[in-house]
Amino acid sequence: MMAGKYNLEIEAGATFSRTLTWTSNGTAVNLTGSSARLMARTSYNNANLILSLVTPTACLSISNATGGVIALALDANITANLVNGVYDLEIVTANGTVKRLLNGSLTVSPEVSHG
After folding, report:
1. Which pLDDT does position 77 carry in this prediction?
2. pTM above 0.85?
3. Dihedrals φ, ψ of 85, to 5°?
4. For residues 43 and 87, what is the distance between their CA atoms, to the nearest angstrom?
5. CB count, 10 Å around CB of 81?
6. How far apart are CA 67 and CA 78, in angstroms?
C-alpha cells in the first residue's frame, strides 16, 4: 500500500483542525495500540523540522482507535510560526510496523492581522 497524497493548506495565525479516517476496502483500520507521528520540513532533504508531532498530544491524537480516526489540531500560536514545506503522517502499529499513511505539501497562507 502506497501512502495517499494529501496537501495541507493552513492559514498562519488561525486554528487548524482535520480529522482523518484510515480505511481499507471501505472498512476502518483498527488503530488500537498504535501511535501516530507527523513531521514537516521545508524540503525533503532539510534536517531541520518545522513541525514534529507524536501521539498522544493535544495537537495529534488517535481519537477513535477502533474507528481508525486520527485528529490533527493546531492552535493559532503553532500555525503563526509555520512556513511552506512538505510533511508525512505515519502510523506505528502495536507490533512496531511503520506505515506511511499520507504525504504531501504544506502550504501556509501568511497572516496580515497580528494579535
Report:
1. 94
2. yes
3. -175, -155
4. 9
5. 11
6. 28
Query: Cis omega (within 30 of 0) on the bond before 56?
Result: yes
Q: What would the grid cell of residue 92 be? A: 506505528
Model confidence band, residue 115 (pLDDT cutoffs 50, 70, 90): low
Sequence-distant (≥ 6) Cβ neighbours of residue 65 within 8 angstroms: 30, 31, 32, 33, 34
Would you tell me which CATH number, out of the four given (3.40.190.10, 2.30.30.240, 2.40.110.10, 2.60.40.10), belongs to the domain 4-109? 2.60.40.10
Tens of pLDDT, residues 53-73: 999 999 999 999 999 999 999
